């Protein structure tokens, strides 16, 4: 067995905000049957509840988007400090009068995740050189110290604000683990090489699109969620199309359904509900 093969295959990650996407369909016939007064009361109540959530506060923020296409009408995106807080905001929204006219069609649960391939390789190699046994108490203490430093250095990325861009594109994705191509059997050094090339493409679009990656292994049906925010929706197409040609995407990536929406302020919800 090679020295590398004796080391853990799992890259280190640091996690931050808990994230929930809620996709809703408006029950149009029921909504239209309400009087204008009843509609206004429901909209006013919703605006009073949602408006304070739009302002970022210590890693907590929500945003509302009007979805394009048949997959839903509205998408709520919630960033919170914990799953408990996500559960509370989900419950609070369900108690609003307007919730009687919203039908959940999909949701996605995840946490902001930053992969540390570079730090992982260096840390594992340094610990191996010192003869520290993987998963021993000393190993675990050293790993936690590295993660603590990374959490402090990357705090703003782990607890991001919802970017104020006009458009959002959300999609879940997996890495292939099939018969011929299996990401989870590729050596760490090779995965690190491919991810570095993959990241170079995203960095070229840094001024046009903001990307937030969330991990969902053990939380939802896919392994990661990706949120892209931009002022021009064509950037989504260009970025994702270019990434399809790099090795990590061309060989190992699987994609779920895409959701594209336009940002809506809480006070403008009435415009969506017409």
What attributes does this structure have?
Alpha-Beta Plaits, eight-stranded antiparallel β-barrel, 41% helix, elongated
Explained architecture:
- By secondary structure, the protein is of the alpha+beta class.
- The chain has a domain at 16-112: Alpha-Beta Plaits.
- It has eleven helices and nine strands.
- The chain has helices spanning 3-6, 28-32, 36-54, 83-94, 117-129, 137-153, 155-158, 188-204, 234-243, 247-252, 269-272, and strands at 13-26, 61-67, 74-80, 102-115, 167-175, 209-215, 224-230, 253-255, 259-264.
- The chain has an eight-stranded antiparallel beta barrel.
- It is elongated and about 75 Å long.
- The model has no long low-confidence stretch (mean pLDDT 95).
Quick overview:
The chain has 274 residues and is an alpha+beta fold.
Biggest sheet strand line-up: 1-3-2-9-5-7-6-4
Compressed to H and E, one letter per element, the order equals: HEHHEEHEHHHEHEEHHEEH
State the helicity in percent bands: 40-55%
Q: What would you call the shape?
A: elongated
Quote the distance from N terminus to C terminus: 66 Å
């Amino acid at each position: 067995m090679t020295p590398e093969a004796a080391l853990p295959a799992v890259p280190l990650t640091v996690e931050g905000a808990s994230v929930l996407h809620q996709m809703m369909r408006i029950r149009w016939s029921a909504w239209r049957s309400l009087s204008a007064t009843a509609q206004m009361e429901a909209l006013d109540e919703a605006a009073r509840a949602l408006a304070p959530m739009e302002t970022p506060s210590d890693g907590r923020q929500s945003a509302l988007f009007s979805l394009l296409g048949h997959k839903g009408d509205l998408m709520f995106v919630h960033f919170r400090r914990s799953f408990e807080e996500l559960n509370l905001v989900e419950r609070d929204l369900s108690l609003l009068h307007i919730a009687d006219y919203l039908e959940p069609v999909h949701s996605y649960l995840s946490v902001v995740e930053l992969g540390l391939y570079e730090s992982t390789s260096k840390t594992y190699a340094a610990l191996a050189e010192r003869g520290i046994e993987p998963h021993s108490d000393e190993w675990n203490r050293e790993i936690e110290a590295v993660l603590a430093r990374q959490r402090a250095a990357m705090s703003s990325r782990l607890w991001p604000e919802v970017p104020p861009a006009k458009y959002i594109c959300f999609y879940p994705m997996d890495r292939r683990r099939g018969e011929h191509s299996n990401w989870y059997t590729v050596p760490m050094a090779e995965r690190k090489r491919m991810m570095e090339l993959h990241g170079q493409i995203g960095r070229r679009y840094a001024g046009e699109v903001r990307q937030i990656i969330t991990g969902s292994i053990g939380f939802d049906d896919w392994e990661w969620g990706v949120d892209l925010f931009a002022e021009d929706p064509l950037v989504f197409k260009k970025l994702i199309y270019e990434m399809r040609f790099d090795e990590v995407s061309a060989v190992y990536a699987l994609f779920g359904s895409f959701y594209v929406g336009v940002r809506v302020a809480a006070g403008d919800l009435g415009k969506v509900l017409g």
